[in-house]
Amino acid sequence: MRIVVQLVKQASVSVDEKVISEIKKGYLILLGIETEDTQEDINWLASKIARLRIFGDENGAMNKSILDVNGDVIIVSQFTLQAKTKKGNRPSYIKAARPEIASVLYDNFILQLENEIGKKIQTGKFGATMDVSLINEGPVTIFMDSKNKY
Fold first, then answer.
1. Taking all residues of the chain, what is their mean pLDDT, rounded to a whole number?
2. What mean pLDDT is predicted for residues 4-33?
3. Per-residue DSSP letters for 17-54?
4. Under 8 Å between Cβ of 143 and 3
5. Are 84 and 95 spatial neighbours (Cβ–Cβ below 8 Å)?
6. CATH of the domain at 63
7. How many angstroms separate the Cα of 22 from the Cα of each of 52, 55, 82, 85, 124?
8. Among 66, 29, 36, which residue's Cα sits nearest to residue 141?
9. Number of domains into which the chain is organized
10. What is the C-alpha end-to-end distance of the chain, expressed in Å?
11. Rounded to an integer, what distance in angstroms lies between the CA atom of residue 126 and that of residue 124?
């Protein structure tokens, strides 16, 4: 499971030119699910995200978590995070989970992160073409891969 966490001042997701989710201060998370991902990957990433200290404290140091600032979260499924670009110029998505598997893991990830941060999470629409807007704060952008946790 690969994710991109972007610290945002605000973010929104639109489908067919209609805003379906929006937040103020918090995280926009892009989530790429691969065939071999499990609940263990979900649990590790959700815990890590909830405790990730990338918000500024009173001295401007990155020292506060999403829990500390009571921030909001939008999660957007993005299979292209599983792209392999080693050969040729056309990315391969062979490791990306099929939609019927990925949608279940996506829903489970949302539930697990909601449990970790104790609040409702906004989402994109799985499988849809979405317009994602954000004002990245910092900019701060963090990439994590659950297969590289050790």
1. 96
2. 98
3. TEEEEEESSEEEEEEE-BTT--HHHHHHHHHHHHH---
4. yes
5. yes
6. 3.50.80.10
7. 21, 19, 25, 32, 10
8. 29
9. 1
10. 14
11. 6
Residue 40: CB atoms within 10 A of its CB come to: 11
**What pTM was estimated for this model as a whole?**
0.94
Catalytic residue (choose from 35, 80, 123, 141): 80
Place of tokens 């807007």: 133
39-51 vs 99-117: helix axis angle to the nearest 10?
Answer: 40
Residue 48, phi then psi, degrees to nearest 5 = -65, -45
Tokens read off for 124: 């994109």
Q: Rounded to whole angstroms, what are the CA distances from 136 to 54, 117, 133?
A: 13, 21, 9
Over 80: is that where the pLDDT of 48 sits? yes
> Rounded distance, CA 79 to CA 63, Å?
31
Examine the residue annotation and report whether 129 is marked as an active-site residue of this protein. no
Instruction: Please identify which residue in the block is written with the tokens 């292209």.
Output: 80
Question: Tokens 């598997």 identify what position?
Answer: 101
* AA letter at 58: E
Question: String of b and e for 72-109 (b: at least 16 CB within 10 Å)?
Answer: bbbbbbbbebbbeeeeeeeeeeebbbeeeebeebbebb
Q: What does the DSSP 8-state code read for residue 113? A: H
Q: Provide the domain limits for residue 124.
A: 2-148
